[in-house]
């Protein structure tokens, strides 16, 4: 069986297509920054241009789905679609133009799927905690094996933190300090004991690409890498001292659309490492969409076993 999963996130849309017949094999993946949640914090509504851009990307994804002859398509939406007052209007537009039914998942489901992706692909030993930092929310899921015993969702990500705290380019010292203080207060409330900290999302994979000189981006050269606290701090200091335009010119690993919002993302990981008492973080290229694929694969295996 061939399954396609589309993740409509607050900042980016992503597509994965995989075979789950005899083992789990990824055959295609693509990601696009659509900034669906831009302007949502202030207005409460998804902006028309962001909806149109996301729709355009979804139409392209469905062409890939047909090209690769996927047997099933699963499409999920996260924080932007949980929060926007006009989310139902957008879901209706998607259904009308593409025939796609998007399921808006809960933060708990989002955390569980991301945890599952890490558990299956990286197999961390002992108790581990994943930090899935997105555009509009950040999920923390902790546990052992395939079983998270605690999932917490914080209602902020790189888009709304940038809009709220960083108004200058490059950001001013007091803006960074205000953001740091805000994050520390939130993270002290959710601090948990773990043996391994795992980072997910475009910010941490971009940092790994920068640290290890990976360009063009190659998931296999990033997945399973580690970043030290010192290296995360180095990139925070380096990039926050640059203007957005300089980041793009100096580092091809940073997508132009990501350059503006990368600083809050780095700060989330840096402060998490400090507060959780970890000197390094494991990087996962697998996240929500891969977790859904893993879930379907394990379900299929269980059904096959039951039918023997």
From TrEMBL:
Pfam families listed in its UniProt record: Ppx-GppA
Organism encoding this protein: Hydrogenobacter thermophilus (strain DSM 6534 / IAM 12695 / TK-6)
The protein, known as: Exopolyphosphatase
TM segment ranges: none
Domain Ppx/GppA phosphatase N-terminal: 17-299
Annotated Gene3D superfamilies: 3.30.420.40, Exopolyphosphatase. Domain 2
Lineage top rank: taxon: Bacteria
Gene name of this polypeptide: ppx
InterPro entries (UniProt xref): ATPase_NBD, GppA/Ppx_hydrolase, Ppx_GppA_N
Organism ancestry: Bacteria, Pseudomonadati, Aquificota, Aquificia, Aquificales
Any one GO MF annotation of this record: pyrophosphatase activity
């Amino acid at each position: 069986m061939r399954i396609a999963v589309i993740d409509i996130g607050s900042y980016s849309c992503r597509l994965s297509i995989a075979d789950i017949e005899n083992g789990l094999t990824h055959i295609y993946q693509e990601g696009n920054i659509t900034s669906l949640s831009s302007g949502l914090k202030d207005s409460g509504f998804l902006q028309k241009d962001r909806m149109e851009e996301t729709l355009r990307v979804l139409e392209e994804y469905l062409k890939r789905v047909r090209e690769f002859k996927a047997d099933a398509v699963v499409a999920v939406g996260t924080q932007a679609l949980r929060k926007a007052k006009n989310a139902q209007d957008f879901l209706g537009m998607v259904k009308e133009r593409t025939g796609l039914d998007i399921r808006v998942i809960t933060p708990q489901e989002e955390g569980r799927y991301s945890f599952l992706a890490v558990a299956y692909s990286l197999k961390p030993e002992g108790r581990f905690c994943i930090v899935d930092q997105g555009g509009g929310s950040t999920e923390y899921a902790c546990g052992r094996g395939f079983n998270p015993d605690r999932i917490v969702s914080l209602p902020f990500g790189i888009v709304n933190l940038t809009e709220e705290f960083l108004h200058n380019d490059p950001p001013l010292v007091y803006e960074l300090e205000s953001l740091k203080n805000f994050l520390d207060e939130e993270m002290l409330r959710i601090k948990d004991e773990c043996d391994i900290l795992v980072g997910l999302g475009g910010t941490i994979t971009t940092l790994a690409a920068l640290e290890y000189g990976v360009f063009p981006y190659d998931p296999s050269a990033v997945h399973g890498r580690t970043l030290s606290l010192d290296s995360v701090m180095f990139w925070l200091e380096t990039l926050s001292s640059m203007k957005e335009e300089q980041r793009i010119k100096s580092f091809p690993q940073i997508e132009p659309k990501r350059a503006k919002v990368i600083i809050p993302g780095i700060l989330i990981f840096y402060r998490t490492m400090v507060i959780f008492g970890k000197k390094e973080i494991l990087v996962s290229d697998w996240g929500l969409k891969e977790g859904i694929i893993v879930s379907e694969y394990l379900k299929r295996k269980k059904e096959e076993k039951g039918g023997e």
